[in-house]
Amino acid sequence: MKVIVLGGDGFCGWPTSLKLAKEGHEVTIVDNLSRRAIDLELSSGSLTNIASIRDRIKVANEKIGKIDFHNIDIAKDFAGLRNLIADVKPDSIIQFAEQRAAPYSMIGDSERRYTVDNNIVGTHNVCSAIVEVDPSIHLIHLGTMGVYGYSKEFGKIPEGYLDIEIKSTAQDTQILYPANPGSVYHMTKCLDQLIFQFYHKNWGLKVTDLHQGIVWGVETAETKLDPALVNRFDYDGVYGTVLNRFISQAANDVPLTVYGIGGQERAFIHISDSARCLQLAVENPPADGERVRIFNQVSEVQSVKGLAQILADQTGAEVQFVDNPRKELAENELEVANDGLRSLGFEPVLLNTDLIEDVKFIGNETKHNFDKANVLSSPKW
Ligand code: NAD
Ligand code: USQ
Prior knowledge:
This protein is an alpha/beta fold. The chain has twelve helices and 14 strands. β6 (161-166) and β7 form a beta hairpin. α4 (78-88) runs parallel beside α6 (109-133) and α8 crosses α12 (354-366). Nicotinamide-adenine-dinucleotide is lined by residues 7, 9-13, 31-35, 73-75, 96-98, 100, 118, 122, 142, 144, 212, 214-215, 241.
């Protein structure tokens, strides 16, 4: 199949592109390299030494399969995006290209507006370009578990839709699960859902929206094949996600920074599983006319303090409870359905000894890049 991967230079997009190419698909990466620019803006960046996009593409073509690259800003260059789609004629387009850090989106006015402009306009441009070029192209979008609000208010979280009964008519129906964002970033993912719902209703757009949990780990079978293919690994207080931060902290003898009492439960998935799920979505498009298909792309639920304890037990790291810089529930209980991807063949890898392997890799290969000043750098909101 031909696949365009928007945001294919990023943490999830790069290993997914390699995986798809390895499986024999023809991959075209589109990325404006804005994450590399934000690394400079934040004086932070990947703990691993990521190669330039030019070297990544060269080595990927030598060692893995067919991957092409185009530097296009999908929010600002609609014509460039539309023309590329018309030239490539993809079977599917994966949309990873959004500003994805909740803390970044809460720093201040310019970061709030950038996140909304970039994510909403970018995603809308993709839908609009597909409708112009060929509405049969399958759009796969990376949503987030955060659209649901992490609560058990309505029981186990279903895959995107909620069964309800309308009291006045005693009618049973289904609605899009009530959106409950916790940051401007998460708000953009909630708005993306409405864009898809409307484009499907009006133009029959074929969409899979993958509500993904927090991705952890760094390497996949493909990124290990050459140092130039190594994946990025964020560890700072803005882009670093909780388990990867804990892994980098354990590897560098820094106490694990549990925010608040660590009672927040979240869904997790390993980076290899994330790429595998994208492969399953690409190879199994929804049927013609099927409503927006929503899958929860998650492997398991853990509490933040539980994660810290697992790592402390495995590595001897110290656990430190620090003031929570975020406005969020101190504790929540979460239970999530993931039957959709499982029905396509997804078998999740659970937190296990890989964790200690990642700590060793991060400790051995990247110690010289670790900057302690980046550990407690999260903005307060
Ligand atoms: P990332 O920041 O590492 O990668 C995003 C990529 O998109 C970057 O390379 C960036 O340069 C590019 N990009 C951003 N705006 C662009 C634009 N306007 N035009 C072209 N390229 C643009 O993020 P990631 O961790 O790989 O996340 C990818 C997607 O998956 C995001 O949409 C995110 O919301 C979602 N997601 C990520 C996680 C996670 O834990 N990392 C969890 C759930 C969902
Ligand atoms: N946390 C800590 N200590 C830390 C960092 C975080 O206790 O050092 C806590 C946070 O307070 C929060 C939880 O860990 O309760 C998760 O935080 P996170 O930064 O790992 O994840 P989040 O901000 O939710 O965002 C990440 C990705 C985002 C994706 C989302 C999936 O950056 O792109 O959408 O995970 S989910 O959380 O399932 O909505």
